[in-house]
């Protein structure tokens, strides 16, 4: 069995989309999400040799409708000198 590793999952701002799915090893622990250059990045501690599952995320801007519970807040990303703040929520998962 491989040892836990931190992986980065990149969500480009262009083309703009408020929903994104990533394939992560089963049981990945999402650590945080924030901006990096012109993308939103989600970091997770994973065990690489695990089965893969799809993890679903959504964005909402400050003052916009947020996803209903049980969505889990992951972090916020600040762009354009913090004139655009996007909040990242995990909303679901499914084994692939």
**Beta strand count:** 7
The spatial strand order of the largest sheet comes to 2-5-7-6
The ordered H/E elements are: EEEEEEE
Taking pLDDT < 50 over at least 5 consecutive residues as the criterion, the unreliable ranges are: none
How many domain units? 1
Account of the protein in words:
Strand 3 and strand 4 (39-46) form a beta hairpin. The radius of gyration is 14 Å and the shape is globular. It has one domain (5-95). With 96 residues, the chain is an all-beta fold. The strands form two sheets. The protein has a four-stranded antiparallel sheet with strand order 2-5-7-6, with no helix packed on it. A three-stranded antiparallel sheet has the order 1-4-3, with no helix packed on it. The chain has strands spanning 5-12, 19-25, 29-36, 39-46, 52-61, 72-79, 84-95. The mean pLDDT is 92.
